[in-house]
Structures are given as C-alpha cells and as structure tokens.
Amino acid sequence: MILAAATATVLLLSGCASRRPHMEEFGAAWPEDTARVEQANGAIFQAGYDVALFENSVARRVGDTVTIILQESTAAQKSSTTSTAKDTNVSIPAPVFGGVPLAIDGHEISASLANSRTFEGTGDSSLSNKLTGNITVTVAQKLPNGNLVIRGQKWIEINQGREFVRIQGVIRPIDIAPDNTIASYRVGNATIAYGARGALNDANRPGLLSRFFNSIWNPL
Fold first, then answer.
1. Could you tell me the CA-to-CA distances from 67 to 27, 56, 85, 153, 213 in Å, in that order?
2. Residue 76 above 60 pLDDT?
3. Every domain of the chain and the residues it spans
4. 3-state helix/strand/coil string of the chain
5. What's the pLDDT tens digit per position in 127-177?
C-alpha cells in the first residue's frame, strides 16, 4: 500500500512538472555570428553607422527586437433550452360474445391505459478573458518565405511574487508598424502564457494530497 501511494505521488509530481513550459523555449535569441571584416573608414563614411534611406528601422534579422502590443480579448456564450411532452391514452372496450358484451357481476369487462411524460432542461455557459500590455521580444528565426519567428518573456517581481508574460509565434514583416510594434492578433500560431511564481501563487494552489485525491490516479 505504501509502495502504491509512493508510486502515485511520483507520477503526479512528474505529470505536473511536464506541464510547465521550459524557460529555454522563451529565452532571447541572439544575432548570428558574422565573420569579422577589417573596416575601411573614410573621413565621412563610418562602417556600421550607415542608415538606409528607404527602409524603416524595424525587426528583420535574427536577434532584432520587436514590441508586441497585447490586445487579447475573447468572449463566448452558449445557452440551450429543451422541453418535450408526450401524452398517451388507450382504451380497450369489453369483448363482445354473441352480440353481447362480456360482463362480470353486471359490470362490463373493459380496460384503459394512460401515460404522460414531460422533460425540461436548460443550460448556460459563458467564458471571457482579457489581456493587455506590451512585451518586447526577439526574432528567433527567419523563415524562407520572409516571415519571422518571434519569442520572448517578461518577468515582473512584485512583493513576494513574480509574474511573467510569454509569447511566441510567427509574424509577417509587412505587418510591423513603422515604430517597430505589432498587435498580438497579427501573430500567427501564437502561444501566449501569463502566470506567476512565488509565495502568493503557492498559497492559492491546493496541496499535494489534495491534488492527488482530485486526480485521475485516485482509485476511489
């Protein structure tokens, strides 16, 4: 019995650990290393300080930063109502023998059947969430078609807790605004996570035994 309980506890802990996202998946991406070339600077021209006249200073290379404007707001509502009713009445007259209805003690033999069924059901469900703010991430990969894979995270430490926002997905360079920002609803295949760590977050979580007895591993 002790061995079974210990095994179930280990499985529960490993399951909880596997659901946590890895920090490395949202880490900043750094620019690719390039071969060092000896700079030939002149009196006016300085290598590395040139600015393109017909391009906006927006993210386009691995390691560049881009600001994601979080504008996530969803709402869903569903309701249903069902009502059914059915009434059945059946009457069986007395059988006739020789043109005369059969009777017992002067009472004709007859039968009747009545059935009534009713059902009423209602259901209502609603869901809404909202997330606003800004987070600056880095370009992790440039795809062959020119799209950019972005990812990043932001941590905010408040009192005894740490809150974080993580995002990753694919964006089109044409959707990036001149001020190097892009709305979150323009991020394709987006994964946006918001959570917290610390004493306050741990206080709002049930204990280990409570999670075990409320899990599918509980045989009761």
1. 15, 15, 59, 11, 43
2. yes
3. 79-124
4. CHHHHHHHHHHHHHHHHHCCCCHHHHCCCCCCCCCCCCCCCCCCCCCCCCCCCCCCCCCCCCCCEEEEEEEEEEEEEEEEEEEEEEEEEEEECCCEECCEECEECCEECCEEEEEEEEEEEEEEEEEEEEEEEEEEEEEEEECCCCCEEEEEEEEEEECCEEEEEEEEEEECHHHCCCCCEEEHHHCEEEEEEEEEEEHHHHHCCCCHHHHHHCCCCCCC
5. 888 889 999 999 999 999 999 999 999 888 877 778 889 999 999 999 999
